[in-house]
Specification:
Largest sheet: none
Distance between the termini: 8 Å
Helix content: 55-70%
Order of helices and strands: HHHH
Number of domains: 1
Structural class: mainly alpha
Number of strands: 0
CATH architecture: Orthogonal Bundle
Strand content: under 5%
Radius of gyration: 11 Å
Shape: globular
Number of helices: 4
CATH topology: Non-ribosomal Peptide Synthetase Peptidyl Carrier Protein, Chain A
């Protein structure tokens, strides 16, 4: 998986949870939960959506490593099978 594909996968899942989000305004370094006012259930739904699209599970222990769009993208690139 490359950076572009991972980035789009996250934004697509985010759009399903927070449809008002304009992908062009997403700060890659901003914490997703803070920037988009995602509660823990919304964040879990985001992770599950990305996990399903990527075809592998993202364990809860890795959630701190995927707090920002940039971190999440990097995580998918280096972890995806």
């Amino acid at each position: 998986m490359n950076q572009s594909h991972a980035h789009e996968m996250i934004l697509d899942s985010l759009a399903g949870i927070a449809p008002e989000v304009d992908p062009a305004t997403v700060d890659p370094a901003g914490e997703l939960q803070v920037e988009f006012d995602l509660d823990s259930l919304d964040f879990l739904n985001l992770v599950e959506g990305v996990s399903k699209a990527a075809g592998f599970d993202i364990p809860e222990r890795d959630y701190p490593a995927i707090a920002t769009l940039s971190d999440f993208t990097d995580y998918l690139v280096r972890t995806a099978p």
